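[job 4417] fold queue: 2 targets
>>> target A
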Amino acid sequence: MQINEYFIIDNQSYICTYADDNAIIAYPTYSYTQVKETNLGIVAFLFAENKRIVFDFKNDQNFKLTQEYDFTYLLDFLIEGKNFIEDYNKKQDIVRVKPLQSQIATLMSEKQNLQVQITQLQNVVNSLALKKQQQVEISNLEQDLINKKFQTKQLSEKLNIRMNDFVSRITMINPNSAKSRIQNQLSYKLGQAMIVNSKSFLGYIRMPFVLSYIKDKHKQEQKNYQEKIKKDPSLKLPPLEDYPDYKEALKEKECLTYKLGEALIKANKTWYKGGYVKMLFEIGKLKREYKNKKI
């Protein structure tokens, strides 16, 4: 640095630093306060050698701010204020959430009640649907029974027979005889009808209708009997063992008439397993057995 002329140092004089050829004002040169605090003076720069000055600061060097610029005392106040605000917000959250929790609990209870009501209504609907289906099935069965009776009546008229006259020949119940009660069982009635109708070609034709009629009539008689004893238990018939002719009546269960009816009932229950085919062999076997007994 060369100074050839006198120059004046005043408040408009600055010390500049250079970085990448750009001048940066560092300090005003004529400032008592700055000179006092930084030990920086113009004389020191005038006598400095013409080389780069490197200021090396340690990273762990502690700096102490002057009281004028030390605002650390505000930190405790800010922290305390922050804690106060957070505590206040927590309390306010509890106050705000409590009514909401009550509303949520009420809504959940209402939801559960509605779900229970929906389940109950669904059960009622399913029950009504089931009852409706059962009623339809019963109506169909009743209509089918009516149709069968009508068809039987029509066929009977065509064949010049009267069904009631034919059925009247089948033994009816005698409450004072075990033999009569066995003869009034469905097995005996069906077997008797099979024997009567097997004596002619015309009988074979009308046999299925006659057997169906006897079965339906017997079912209705049993239903009427159960209704009567339900209203008046005294009308209930005594056990077969109490009749004086019980032992004699048991022979009726071993006769051909009763066995034929039993074979037909069994075949009807297992028709899908070839029950009717088995019945034909069973009838042939029964005929041979009773033929041998007569011999």
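>>> target B
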Amino acid sequence: MHFDPVVKQQFAQLTANYGLTVAQAFKLFANQSIKTGVLPLSFDWQKPIENNELSIDNLNSKCQILK
């Protein structure tokens, strides 16, 4: 299988974070797909909340109002 070297490197890093090689990740993906009859993909992920400090400050101030 051939794909963009940058994508390959990024995917290798991602799989390494899970203690897997690229080959192991593909094998898991293939086996899970065959077992379930569907592709184990989710397209409903949410973007991380940006400005966490601002969000925490807002929550803290609202908690103070409730006290």
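[job 4417] complete. Note on B: DSSP finds three helices and no strands in the chain.
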